[in-house]
Design goal:
Elements: E1 26-38, E2 42-48, E3 53-59, H1 65-68, E4 77-86, E5 94-105, H2 123-128, H3 130-134, H4 137-159, E6 163-164, E7 170-171, E8 183-186, E9 189-193, H5 198-208, E10 211-218, E11 231-240, H6 244-265, H7 267-272, E12 288-290, H8 291-302, H9 314-323, E13 327-331, E14 354-359, E15 362-369, H10 374-383, H11 392-396, E16 405-411, H12 412-419
Parallel strand pairs: 3-5, 6-10, 12-13
Antiparallel strand pairs: 1-2, 1-4, 2-3, 4-5, 7-9, 8-9, 10-11, 11-16, 13-14, 14-15, 15-16
Helix pairs in contact: 4-6
This protein binds aspartyl-adenosine-5'-monophosphate.
Residues 176, 196, 198, 219, 221, 228-229, 232, 234, 236, 363-367, 407-409, 411, 413-414 line the site of aspartyl-adenosine-5'-monophosphate.
Length: 440
Amino acid sequence: MSMDEMEDFRKTHYTKDIIPELIGKEVILGGWVQNYRDLGGLKFIILQDKFAERQITLKKGVVSNDLFDVKVGYQWNIMVKGIVKEFKKAPGGIEIIPSQIKILNKTPQKLPIDMTGETVSELDIRLDNRVLDLRSKKNQAIFRIRSEVINSIREFLLKNNFTEITTPKIIASATEGGTELFPIIYFEEEAFLSQSAQLYKEQLCSVFENVFEISPAFRAEKSHTKRHLCEIFTLDVEMAFANMQDVLKLLEEMIQFIIKDIREKRLDDLKILNMENKTIVPKIPFPRYTYKEIIEKISTEFNINVEFGEDISTEAYRKLGEVLPGYYFIIDWPTSSKPFYIIPYKDKPELTESFDLQKGYLELTSGGTRVHNKEYLEKRLEEKDLNPISFESHLRMFDFGMPPHAGAGLGIDRFITVLCGLDDIREAVMYPRTPDRLTP
Ligand code: AMO
C-alpha cells in the first residue's frame, strides 16, 4: 500500500498542549502509534509525540467508512486531523475525533524490541535499534533530565561569572598521560582525539579567569564495565586565583543547584524513573576524607589492603559505597597517582592538593590545584617521565602571567547515571561508544 504525503498538513499542537480550552476546536497532531485497539465498532489509536500521548477515537458511523477502515501498526508514523472532544474515560479526559489520518511511515510487523513496557529487552538489542528504544517513556525521561542538567550547569556557572569556552578536540599531545589516546591522521602528521580540555582550560584561566566547557572527551580504554565509555561528555571547570578548597565549594553548591532545579522542573520524569525519593537535594558541605583515611577505612572495615600510592580497587569502592552512599570528597591523593599538572603540597611532597568527588561507589569528578609556575611545571613533567619539549606550546602560555588556578572535570554521563538511578552508563547516553560498539 502506498503511503501518504504530508502535503499541507502541519502540526498545530503537541499532545501536551491539547487542553480543555481546545474542546470543539480542530487540531493536527503528529507522532507515533504507541498502541491501538479494535473493539469492533470502536477503535482507539494512542498517538505519542515527544511530550505525551493522546487517544484518537474512531467510532463506526461517526467517522467516515474509509477512515474507520484505516489500518495502523505499532510505532507507525502518522498525522491526525480532528476535533478535540471531552471524554472522561480517556487519558487526560480528552479524546480526538479524527476527520483525516495520514500514514506517513510504517514499521515491520514484529518490532525488534518490546515497546509496550511489559518486558525490557536486552540493552544491546535496544542500542542496535536506538531510535525506537529512545521513544520509551523511561528513555524520554532520562534524556529530558540530561538536557535539564546540562542547562542547569550552564545557568549556575554563568550566574557565577564563568565564561563558556570551546577548545579543540584534535590535539597534538596527551594531557592525561601517554595511554588511553585515540591516534588520528591529521594530514601528514599524527594527532589525537582530546582526552580532556585540561591544558586549554588552564591556559584560558589566564584570560577569562573562571572558565567552563561542556564537551566530548575521548578515552581509548578497553574497559568493559558499567561505568566506562570511550566517548564521554564532560564538564570542565577552571578557576583563577583559586585553589582546591574553592573548587570543592563550587562543586557542592553546583550539585545542590542542579538537583533542586531538576526536582523543580523534571519531577514527573524522576517519578517515571522511581527516583523522586532518591534524587534529593544533598546537604552541604559534603564530607571530606583524605585518601589516607579512606585506605585505612577500607583496611579496617573491609579487610582489603591498599598500599599507599595504589589505586583503590573496584571491589573496595563498591564496599565503600555501601557505607558512604551519598556525595563525599576523597582529598589529598598521592603525588605518584596524579598527573603532572596537579600541585604537590609544599610541606608534604608525597601528597597533592587533589580530590575526587564520589557518589557512593562511583567517581563523578576529579580535580585539584594546579602548578602555575613554569619551571616547576617543567620539573613535574620530567618527574612523570614526560618530555617538556612535547609540551612546548602549552608551557609558553605560562610565560604571560599565569595566575594560580584550580579546577575539576565532571563526567556528565556518570552524573546522569546516578541522578536517574541507572544500572549501566550506556543508558545515560543516546549513542554510547564502547570498545565493541561503533554503531549506530
Ligand atoms: P578524569 O580523567 O578523572 O580527570 O576525568 C574526569 C571525570 O570524567 C569521567 N570519566 C569517565 N566516564 C566514563 N567513562 C570513562 N572512560 C571516563 N573517564 C573519565 C569521570 C571522571 O571523574 N583533567 C582531569 C580533570 C581535572 O583535573 O580538571 C580529568 O580529565 O566521572
